[in-house]
Amino acid sequence: MEDVLDLYGEAYDPERPVVCFDEKSLQLLAETRPPLPAAPGEPARQDYEYKRQGTANIFISVQPLAGWRQVTVTEQRTKVDFAIEMQRLVDLHFPQAKCIRVVMDNLNTHRPASLYEAFAPEEANRIRHRLEFHYTPKHASWLNMAEIEISALSRQCLQRRIPDREALETQSASWQRRRNQDHVLIQWHFTSSDARTKLSRLYPETP
């Protein structure tokens, strides 16, 4: 836990950015009847019936101190999908960084071995040497600031019926673009010192 909290306490360093990473599954739902738009004196109306259209996965990466986030929509969240996202962090989003420190939870896909599932050994090794993984403790994924960003995305963009992956990509990209343009930062205040006081029960007892 303190490993992650100490990272959050460091000053912004573009050569060694801290990036929080997480994912969310979303049920795709289509309308069975066209909704009625709002009219004077009448709210918008939507039929209670819907058609299930499968699911999609959302990967989100956020750099809290830079006000930057990236949303990627995929069909699944396999080891290969995860590896491709890590490659994008290295080559597309942070090509000049010496080391990208990635905070994430302990899913079995979130491992350096996933890089070798997706790429040739030389490429996997190249990517691995640009990344430094920091894991939140079990049952403490709330320490991952990407969860804050997923919550904002869910409230501001996903509380509606989204029928297919294309619509999800369009809406999430619009949300991402607006939030990046507004340079929305995440202010984290919970420190290692706070953890030692408020979560003392989680620390080993000292003689």
Largest sheet: 5 strands, mixed
Contiguous uncertain segments of 5+ residues: none
Q: The CATH topology is what?
A: Nucleotidyltransferase, domain 5
Radius of gyration: 20 Å
Strand content: 15-25%
- How many independent structural domains? 1
Total beta strand runs? 5
Overall mean confidence score, pLDDT: 91
Q: Output the number of helix runs.
A: 7
CATH superfamily: Ribonuclease H-like superfamily/Ribonuclease H
The end-to-end span amounts to 22 Å
Helical content class = 25-40%
Write the layout of secondary structure elements.
Layout: H1 2-8, E1 18-31, E2 50-63, E3 68-74, H2 79-93, E4 100-104, H3 113-118, H4 121-128, E5 131-135, H5 146-156, H6 165-181, H7 192-198
Parallel strand pairs: 1-4, 4-5
Antiparallel strand pairs: 1-2, 2-3
Offer a few descriptive terms.
207 residues, alpha/beta, Nucleotidyltransferase, domain 5, 5 strands
What this model shows, in words?
The chain is an alpha/beta fold and 207 residues long. It has seven helices and five strands. Strands 3-2-1-4-5 form a five-stranded mixed sheet, with helices on both faces. Strand 2 (50-63) and strand 3 form a beta hairpin. 22% of the residues are buried. The mean pLDDT is 91.
How would you summarize what this structure contains?
This protein is an alpha/beta fold. It has 7 helices and 5 strands; from the N terminus they run αβββαβααβααα.
